[in-house]
User: What shape does this take?
Amino acid sequence: MSVSVSEFGRLPSGEAVLRYTITNASGASASLLNYGATWQTMFVPNRKDELVDVVLGYDTIDGYLKNTMYLGATVGRVANRIKNARFTLNGTEYKLAANLGTSCLHGGNVGYDKKIWQAQIDGDSVFFSLTSPDGDEGFPGELSVVVIYSLGEDNALSIRYLINTDQDTIQNMTNHAYFNLAGQRSTVLEQTLQIDADQFTRIDELTIPTGEIVPVRNTPLDFTKAKPLGRDINVTVEHIDTAGGFDHNFVLNHPKGGVERVATAVDPIGGVAMDVYTDQPGVQLFTPPDFSYMIGKGGEPYGIRPAFCLETQHFADAMNNPHFPSIVLRAGEVFSSETIYRFRVEK
Ligand code: G6D
Assistant: This one.
């Protein structure tokens, strides 16, 4: 196992953006940027023992400076939606940036994806740390965040979060990687997905949770058995049409609790498989309809149905749905969580 660091580019301010690449003994590797604590590449072997980069992104910092779809980014202080861009905590109402219609998305206008994080190599891991000041994007409390990326010899990429605050606040962080297990340019519609979730949180026509927790059974959101992503993606129920595809949070079953396997995706052609493990209560499945406007790695545009996201997290709009798992972090508490994306070859 080795970790190398190189200059990836420079911000308009002249500040250097550094790329950290963790490579294991079998040659699999993950590259991470200190800008947005971003997951930039993930090279893993396919059935022909060719190394395939299975996360979408950009070859230069310019792409990440215009990263309106958050490719690979660490998202915070609060990922996903907050309805009406406001919440109440301890009797005080906090107003946030309304950057998705009237809602707040992904931490507001300048979320953690747009910050330079302090980085430190430690063994086969890279530690990224950020201090988000009291009032940052309207959120109370100074939040101290450490995100630790580690790559194992088993081609598993672990992302651990350690978070604390000096005042009661809210937090819900995730990684917004876009996966294509066949590599950079193909549709993912034939790739299969299984999610260990018997329920999902229903959304409205604006993709905002209604507060209902609904069984997936007999709906297009039933991924309890593996099925191709394309099988039910063009239906007009559960706002899959108005959302442009899946853009839904799943209530993970978590039979044992703790960090456990919650989803599996497979590319049946190249043989790359990905098992997702997490201790988080939910996962957002997002299948963007069309990235043909986006010039990605290799200087080429991406295409139709180019990727899928499995963003492990708490449920969207939790503060306005008290029956959802809480995202409140009390002063002096430490929040810790781990998500693992383990890659293997399906024979
Ligand atoms: C769109 O609705 C989707 C979000 O879920 C996604 O995170 C974002 O694009 C990048 O707003």
Q: What stands out?
A: The mean pLDDT is 97. Residues 69-70, 100, 105, 207, 247, 286 surround alpha-D-quinovopyranose (CB under 6 Å).
